[in-house]
Amino acid sequence: MLSSLFTRLAGFTSSALGMDVQTGKLNGLRWHITSLWEEYGHIQQIGYTCSLCGQLPDAKLRRGVENLREKMGDLQVVCEERSGQLEADLEEDLEEDLFHREDDLAPSPEIRDGDVSHLPLPERPICKRPSDGDFSEQKRLKMSEANDVSYNNSESN
């Protein structure tokens, strides 16, 4: 009955939320677990109300109890379906996570066996080494800048 569905709900919740799953899947998992806890709360309320109403000798209350028992039966079906769906989703998510982890660990087909000769070169070199002519020009510019600074300093004195 319902008690068998909810006897291990707390332990199941903590172990399910402690699993290493992707964020989007974790949100779906939380939704399922939250729904189960909501249904569990509804069932507890109905059960408590039934026990109180069953103790009173009123015909209207007895009809209310019968109505609540019908609702409990409906909730039982819903909870069983959600539990089954949650278990199926968990199994699917675990299989997908294991599959994706294996893909992440596999070497890229482009760089397999260390051969990168077939990969395209970048459009421009990462680091440009100055040619001798460039170096001479850079050196002349720095020297002329230094001379200009020293000349300007001597004029200001």
Automatic annotation (TrEMBL):
Stretches with biased composition (Polar residues): 147-157
Superkingdom as given in the UniProt entry: Eukaryota
Region called Disordered, residue ranges: 99-157
Biased segments, Basic and acidic residues type: 99-116, 125-145
Identification of the protein by name: Uncharacterized protein
Originating organism: [Emmonsia] crescens
